[in-house]
Amino acid sequence: MSRENLARGLSKREVEGLRQEAWIGDAVLELYVRERILKEEAARNDARRISLVRNSFLNSIGQPTRVEAEIGRLYLQKGLAAAFQWIETQTTAIQARQKPARR
């Protein structure tokens, strides 16, 4: 996303705050995906991890920087479990919508 689109309607300080939250959110999202894959498959699966953190997948939820910022805010305000629950809810809904399209 271009700086102009991200900054639209936001102050410079708000944009910087959003980026910082997104940076944390990206790390939380990566941790969630790795834990989920290990639980489900008991093995490392990089292709699956990449598909869940890719911007094209995040676009299914919303603008990627804003999605990651939301994850970061949840983590900072409510903790890891709350952030993981939000990610689970969002990704489950997206994957359910995508499955019929793959058939």
UniProtKB/TrEMBL annotation:
<dbReference type="InterPro" id="IPR036389">
    <property type="entry name" value="RNase_III_sf"/>
</dbReference>
<dbReference type="GO" id="GO:0004525">
    <property type="term" value="F:ribonuclease III activity"/>
</dbReference>
<dbReference type="GO" id="GO:0006396">
    <property type="term" value="P:RNA processing"/>
</dbReference>
<protein>
    <recommendedName>
        <fullName>RNase III domain-containing protein</fullName>
    </recommendedName>
</protein>
